Amino acid sequence: MNVDIDESWKTILKSEFESPYFEELTDFVKEEYSQHTCFPKGQDIFSAFNHCSFNDVKMVIIGQDPYHGVGQANGLCFSVKPGIALPPSLINIFKEIETDLNTPFPEDGNLERWAKQGVLLLNATLTVRAHEAGSHQKRGWETFTDAVIQTISDSKKNVVFLLWGGFAKKKGKKINEEKHCVLTSGHPSPLSANRGYWFGNKHFSQANAYLIETGQEPIVW
């Protein structure tokens, strides 16, 4: 696996890339991609980082693992490429934005526009085998993405972390809440949203209010 990642991340995560676990992870991912159909495409594995440099991070959204359907995953959590049907969780995210901010439903599900404004769209696991959810979990990706979250928490201040669902909340347990804004709610998946754990969380307006309060540019959702 070629670590094709923005230089700012390559520098600050140097010790991770040089560690034994990452070497084992690299070998595993290379073998999986050579023997099976896996997502996202190889060049998109680190897309979340390449569309949002370390210096630009002002918000982090944590997902679990990439979409495992054909053509869906593009390396950014919850995001799909233009022309791909919106997955149910993303539909619910857009519905909440629509009611929270009174903005129109977007034309497509490509969230690169968020990333370019400083939103790190981070999946806990960066790869997956086609049609096998969770198939690349517990092979090293979680250790790497834990280090990413810890590094952001330790090295930056006034970052907004959006933790949706139990998995993301556990993933964010080491975030320093004294220097960052942590917003939690249920997951936007239909199972959670239809039980009343997602809609009305107003995370998007709250996040922007915090950014403005701390002298940062709000996100154009």
From TrEMBL:
InterPro entries: UDG_fam1, Uracil-DNA_glycosylase-like, Uracil-DNA_glycosylase-like_sf. Residues 50-211 form the Uracil-DNA glycosylase-like domain. It is an enzyme of class 3 (hydrolase). Its main location: cytoplasm. GO terms for molecular function: uracil DNA N-glycosylase activity. It is found in: Cytoplasm. GO terms for cellular component: cytoplasm. GO terms for biological process: base-excision repair, AP site formation via deaminated base removal. The keyword Hydrolase applies. It catalyses: Hydrolyzes single-stranded DNA or mismatched double-stranded DNA and polynucleotides, releasing free uracil. Its EC number is 3.2.2.27. The active site is at residue 65. Keywords: Cytoplasm, DNA damage, DNA repair, Hydrolase. Belongs to the uracil-DNA glycosylase (UDG) superfamily. UNG family. Excises uracil residues from the DNA which can arise as a result of misincorporation of dUMP residues by DNA polymerase or due to deamination of cytosine. This is Uracil-DNA glycosylase. It comes from Croceibacter atlanticus (strain ATCC BAA-628 / JCM 21780 / CIP 108009 / IAM 15332 / KCTC 12090 / HTCC2559).
